[in-house]
Amino acid sequence: MRDRSVGMFVKEENVMRDVVLHVFNWQYQEIINRLGEIRDAGYGALLIPPPIYSDVKGHDWWQCYQPKDYRVVLSHLGGKQELKELIEQCHTIEPKLKVYADIIINHMANETRPDRLNFPGEAELANYRKNQALFEANRLYGDLSVGLFSPFDFNRGGNIERDQWCDRDRVIYGDYNNLPDLMDSPWVLSQQRTMLIALAAMGFDGFRIDAIKHLSERMIDNFADSESLAGSYFFGEVLTGSDCEENIFLDPFLRETWISAYDFPLFQTIREAFGFGGSLRKLAHPEAENNALPWDRAVTFVVNHDIPHNKDFRGWLLDPTDEHLAYVYILGRDGGLPLIYSDHNESAHTYSKDRDRWFDAFQREDIKAMIKFHNAVHGNPMTILYDSDLLLVFRRGENGIVAINKAGYDTSVEFNTWGLKSSSYEDLISHRQMRLGGDRCTLSMNPRTAQMWLCHQ
């Protein structure tokens, strides 16, 4: 049953914390050092980069997305001991932070070597023997004296071609950009399940499954239906950018699994609504219009790590002001698990205009204000108070008001205050105060701004 209880934002112990901070490409020790800041900003969970063994000398952002061996926890971001300390501190800090791991099970690393379909490969096995103490300290499970996968464990259909991205079978069983695609054989499935169970035993609260639209239903059910993982939260990246892709990939995913997913339909709706000629009315009831995932299966976002780094997706980036307004929307609305992306300028190495755009975004004052609002009104119903092409106003229960103006000029909006408390309110973004009383309220709004009013008591 969904919690619809009403709680006041002044009582910190009563607020619900569920916002996920994607600590993209952060080293584990840095996360540990900044847990106090993260807690104080109001987050409820962390999403860490893939922890499974990858090239420790390769510092490119994508390096962790090319696993070498499920049985080892080690990357350029840190090893098993730092990860255990991170999880322990997240679980003992008050309030507790959940920890989710990004996991790659569709493919293994694309490496140039004669035995490229043997993992970890002969050279790596020799490295294990040479540095036995290091790899034993970072062993997750299993016998590191023998290999894990052989050529018999991979689909051999070749790369997915550009004109095959709407062919579900090719997307599931083909290679993406020369990354060796694992088959859903009993051996592969047993290793994937064992790896996830071992990570859960380390203390991980859940897992983001990368490239999940590339997985067969059998591969997903293998971990999603495991009794040993019943307490884990799973969400997947079902990347879609059109109605055709939603029909082919997302709709079957929603029917065939119970797993949550990135809400790409809502993201595309947000892009259209804030785009030139778009209407904010599209954001009033997106789920009812099939423009958003069900509230209990959606991980909502405004930017994720793939969009800035992939030239094919950079056209999806919002204008920075629209990005701010979109964050107000996803953290102000009812439904979904909001995710905030915070990087270390990785994309700026290629795209200089990205510099500092998402660097330490987790502690931006506007985002902290939005999270405070979100946590305070969590579970309270959302009621539209006013909507037009350029303005959207809604309330959250009786204590919160969200107002968004995408117009390029000053405006005002009047609405009925039925259902709202007659009390003092503060706009958490601008820190302005107002007293709400009577049947009507008028808000004055500057161009391309938003307000998040929370009731004082």
From TrEMBL:
Catalytic reactions of this protein: Endohydrolysis of (1->4)-alpha-D-glucosidic linkages in polysaccharides containing three or more (1->4)-alpha-linked D-glucose units
InterPro entries, alphabetized: Alpha_amylase, GH, GH13_cat_dom, Glyco_hydro_b
Q: What class of enzyme is it?
A: hydrolase
Example GO BP: carbohydrate metabolic process
Pfam families referenced in this protein's UniProt entry, alphabetically: Alpha-amylase
EC number, UniProt record: 3.2.1.1
Ranges of residues in domain Glycosyl hydrolase family 13 catalytic? 18-374
Which SUPFAM superfamilies does the record associate with it?
(Trans)glycosidases
Recorded GO MF terms: alpha-amylase activity; cation binding
Q: Which UniProt keywords apply?
A: Carbohydrate metabolism, Glycosidase, Hydrolase
Query: In which family does this protein belong, per the annotation?
Result: Belongs to the glycosyl hydrolase 13 family.
This chain's protein is named Alpha-amylase
Starting at the broadest rank, the lineage of the source organism is: Bacteria, Bacillati, Cyanobacteriota, Cyanophyceae, Oscillatoriophycideae
